[in-house]
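User: Sequence in, structure out. Go.
Assistant: Echoing your sequence, followed by the C-alpha cells.
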Amino acid sequence: MHKLLVGIVGAFGGTFSYTYLLHAPRQTAIPASLIAVAGYVVYLLVDAAGCSAIFSYFLATVVISSLCEISARVMRLPSTTFLLSALVPLVPGYTIYSAMLALVENNGMEAASAGLKAVQLVAAIAVGAAVTPVLFRAFYRRTQAMHTRR
C-alpha cells in the first residue's frame, strides 16, 4: 500500500512539475496530473495481475491517451498538451539507466538485454499513443455521419 501511495504522489507531482517545464497552459496542469495518476495506477494493477511489462505499458498508455483525447475535447485544446506531460510517469528511465550502466561497465550481454527491453517498452508507449487518437477520430467521424443522416 505504501508503494502505491508513493507512486501516486510521485506521478502527480512529477507530471504537475513537468507541465510547468513545458510551459503548458495552466488549466492543463491538474487534469494532466490526474490522467497520469490514472495511467500509472492502471500500469501497476496490470503489472500486479501478472501481465507482461510491455502489455502493462501499452494498456496504461491507451488509458492515458484516451483520457487526454476526452480532456482535449472538453477543454478545446490539442490532446498533445495533456499527453506529453501525462506520459512522464511511464518513461522507462531505470531500464535505460541499467542499459547505459552496463555499457559503461563493459557488460555487453546485460546492456543488450536492458537496451532491448527499454526499446520494447518505449515502442509499447509509442504504439499506444498513436493508435488511440486514430480510433477516436474514426469513432468521431462515424458518430458525426450517423447524426447527419437523421
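User: And one key feature?
Assistant: The CA atoms of residues 36 and 86 lie 4 Å apart.
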